Amino acid sequence: MNMYLSYLLIDTGDNPDRPRPGRLWIRNRYHVHQRLCMAFPNRNRKADDPDFIQPFQPADFGVDQVHVPRQPDQGFLFRIDPLPGGRVAILVQSATKPDWDYAFHNAGFLLAAPPEIKSFAVDFRPRQRLRFRLLANPTRKIDTKTGPGGKRRSGRRVPLAKGELAAWLIRKAATAGFNVDSNALAIQPSFVYFRKTEKHLPENSADEQRPGGQKLRAVLYEGIIEVADPEKLRAALVAGIGSAKGFGFGLLSVAACR
Fold first, then answer.
1. 128-202+214-256 maps to CATH 3.30.70.1210
2. Domain boundaries, the chain
């Protein structure tokens, strides 16, 4: 089974006195996800609007690719990775080859370089050791008790405490076909702040101080894993791990240990 991995280097700018639209764009994860969806237009949309002049309409994009369960033949995951020097890259893992030329046809100023796309095989063997990176949203559900009408509440998710983060990953690993090397595990907890709409505020305004904003627990896991069940690990890599995948969580990146 093959999938596609895209590397998007974002133009975050290096002069605070000049407009830096790329930096503002990645701070609004709703807008990031929307732009990434545009890389999967349906045939009619691309034929009728080759220059991407018409407004974004969700129904025109991602038939079987967007807002669907992530499977070997549909859906995508992404992660925003900070780089040295204040730069930022976005990794996108997709079941089909994305059309980045179309997605950024009217927004090329957001990119610092042409997108890179490569196909890779999702293939593992038992006891194989791999380096990994995972930005996850570890949570637990509360308020799920049955209501007066006998219907069970869906509840709401709340972030885990720092002392529970390692155990959360180990539980996920048990059902995802891999074991975590606890001695090599690094955990960096933080929060991601976001809002649906971006008001005209100073660029250096703290995200958590912006009115109407929300936050999600973000935990970066890095280290070494060992393959226990190749099929389960393959399924976990395709589907992602944890919640809030539409906000850039759940993409499991692995590479051979050297």
1. yes
2. 2-121, 128-202+214-256
User: What is the predicted pLDDT for the residue at 147?
Assistant: 60
Paired tokens of 205: 């305004």
CATH of 2-121, picked from 3.40.630.10, 3.40.1180.10, 3.30.70.1200, 3.40.50.1110, is 3.30.70.1200
Q: How is 227-239 classified by DSSP, letter by letter?
A: ES-HHHHHHHHHH
Q: How many angstroms separate the Cα of 210 from the Cα of each of 18, 22, 200?
A: 22, 19, 10
The candidate with the shortest Cα–Cα distance to 227, out of 186, 183, 173, 171, is 173
pTM: 0.86
Token representation of residue 193:
């702040």
Segment 155-203, tens digit of pLDDT:
677 888 899 999 999 999 999 999 999 999 999 999 887 766 555 444 4
DSSP assignment, residue 66?
S
Q: Is the separation of the CB atoms in 22 and 109 below 8 Å?
A: yes
